[in-house]
Amino acid sequence: MKRVAFLTSGGDCQALNATMRGVAKTLYETDEDVEIIGILEGYKGLMYEKYVKMKPSDFSGILTEGGTILGSSRQPFKQMRKPDENGMDKVLAMKNTYQKLKLDCLVILGGNGTQKTANLLSEEGLNVVGLPKTIDNDIWGTDMTFGFQSAVDIATDCIDRIHTTAYSHGRVFIVEVMGHKVGWLTLHAGIAGGADVILLPEIPYDIDSVIGAIERRTEAGKRFSILAVAEGAISKEDAALSKKELKEKLKNNPYPSVSYKIGAEIQERTGQEIRITVPGHTQRGGSPCAYDRVISSRLGAAAARLIKKEKYGYMVGFKGDEIVPVPLSEVAGKLKMVDPNSSIIKEAKNLGICFGD
Length: 357
Ligand code: F6P
What we know:
This protein is of the alpha/beta class. Helix 1 packs across helix 11 (290-309), helix 5 packs across helix 6 (184-192) and helix 7 (207-219) packs across helix 10 (258-270). The chain contains 13 helices and 11 strands. The strands form 2 sheets. Strands 3-2-1-4-5-10-11 form a 7-stranded mixed beta sheet, sandwiched between helices. Strand 4, helix 4 and strand 5 (128-132) form a beta-alpha-beta unit. The chain binds 6-O-phosphono-beta-D-fructofuranose (F6P).
């Protein structure tokens, strides 16, 4: 009898259930003697022994269901070595739950922070298999994460809808796309949605360059402009500051987010009418797109293969179209960022898209 637990941690996304279904179906298909346990609310459930025994029927009908049937929570990696409010050692508590449940393996679905903790647990001697979840597509060691394409589709749809109203009213619109540290989602949605300006955390912007792009469009008789701006877009001026200096500066910042700051600057300098749209968490909501259903099912099957082989301490990731096991120790603590000199940025620039640099 093999006892395998599933855990979903960090911000949710569309294909978490589809991925768990992929692992479960493959395990049930290839090993009749398997028991699956669902750890509730991410690492919190592992710390405080919140779990449910699962049956094959629990994985039926969830391929298309967004969110996570297990619930999730954010448990920052930085806090893992710090005791909880009652003095409990979190890592020890997680190890105890694992032992108590007599687990053979813990399957962990999550983003960067989650994979860091997965690596910590692996180093602590637990058998762990990681699966790359995030709409940000910023996990090191995989070309693609599940959730990303679904979010791209939603953010693109948002930009598409903005096009018609922006044109009608002759306005400048800013669509703020999720991604604090990394701009993959903004880049892909921006290109797919035909944005005129794309601002990413990886390419600090100069507001003069952004305004120049808008004015050139106005001079060319275009009635509107659309900017796709990542949550973490940063000006060249701010990027030059130390973390401490930036924190100090932001204390007096009157804007709810960077888009409002950019919008105010554009309005003041060009006199154009500005509107800001923030699709926010809708980008993580609803059903996974077909592409995500395919890759999450494949990643799930590949994770089950690792469990079958008892190959632990790895995350399954995409290298091109192949799924490869990547050591968690290599994944932990790294971010896959957009390279400002990459081909996709060059092609976007060829298309006339302004990146504010
Ligand atoms: O990591 C996924 C993500 O959706 C980011 O793109 C976004 O900045 C963040 O999570 C939002 O976090 P929360 O759900 O905690 O508000």
